[in-house]
Design brief:
This protein has 213 residues and is mainly beta. Helix content is 10%, strand content 45%. A 7-stranded antiparallel beta sheet has the order 1-8-11-6-5-4-3, with no helix packed on it. It has a 6-stranded mixed beta sheet with strand order 2-13-12-7-10-9, with no helix packed on it.
Length: 213
């Protein structure tokens, strides 16, 4: 993190970004997300798992990078789109707002490495004050799991929850199939006290199971 430069969201002009580039004619499949949460000890993760015909197509994840003492304090949030050799990531868009209502927090993005990232769309958008992180043409830049690191700095409203609006477009490597996903979800933020309580509960449960064995 100390080698990365953080950008202020208010400093970058943003226009609307529509997902996708021109693809060869073929079928289009709309993907629905199954939400999985992992909240054990010092871990607070949410995964969106996209499947088609029973097969996993992609996984998008969010993880809390740090636990503030209170919901008024700054904390980290990581976003990732997991690599899958069967599909190519064509484009993505994340709109983030913390909290979902009230004055929105300032959301800062750590600049990713790589030559293609200057084409990244990033900044505050109109309407509800969400912060957008998007890449309209990801084909040449994302050939592995894609990680984005953000810092969320609440203003007058505590950031107890983050509203996430995601769009993503994929293409199959072995045929003219386009996969599209549009998902709205929320991420529940934990404090140090929450994380410690969860850790203690997990340890107690493990001890009880060991005793039973």
């Amino acid at each position: 993190m100390d080698r990365r430069r953080f950008l202020a969201s208010a400093a970058i002009p943003v226009g609307l970004t529509t997902a996708g580039c021109s693809l060869a004619p073929g079928r289009t499949v709309t993907l629905q997300a199954e939400t999985e949460r992992q909240d054990e000890g010092r871990q607070n993760h949410t995964y969106l798992v996209y499947r088609h015909d029973g097969e996993e197509v992609r996984v998008v994840g969010f993880n809390q990078g740090s636990f503030p003492a209170s919901l008024d304090e700054e904390f980290g949030l990581g976003l990732f789109i997991e690599y899958d050799e069967a599909t190519t990531l064509e484009s993505f868009r994340f709109d983030l707002r913390a909290p979902p209502t009230g004055e929105p927090a300032d959301i800062y993005l750590a600049t990713p490495g790589g030559d293609a990232w200057p084409y990244l769309t990033y900044g505050r958008i109109g309407g509800d004050g969400s912060t957008r992180i998007a890449l309209a043409d990801a084909v040449d830049s994302v050939d592995e799991t894609m990680f984005l690191t953000t810092r969320i700095d609440p203003n007058s409203a505590p950031a107890e929850r983050i509203a996430i609006d995601l769009e993503m477009e994929l293409s199959a490597r072995n045929g003219p199939t386009t996969y599209r996903a549009a998902t709205t979800t929320t991420f529940d933020v934990e404090t140090q006290e929450d994380a410690q309580a969860t850790e203690n509960t997990t340890e107690n449960s493990s001890g009880e199971l060991s005793t039973l064995r």
